[in-house]
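pasting for the record
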Amino acid sequence: MSNNISKTQVFNQIAELQKNLESLDKILFKIQCVTDSQSCVEPEEGEPIPLDYLPDVAMEKIKAIREIVTEREKTINKMLDFYLKLYQDIENEEKE
């Protein structure tokens, strides 16, 4: 398998997946913030986000978004596991 993909390519893919997970963490924070209150202060920006909405509709949207983000996180974790295994396999082949 290492003939088709290099260790560097696998490492770069792992790094990209980790960036995606960090991005998902920020999204999940914002979703939780909206769930908890009608306004939110983002840590890095410090400005409140006003939320004018119909609470029932907003909560359903929030639940749907949370499910999508959670599933995406699971998918990225599975991909990360795959690439880590691939990286280890390439490394083991190089030692032989």
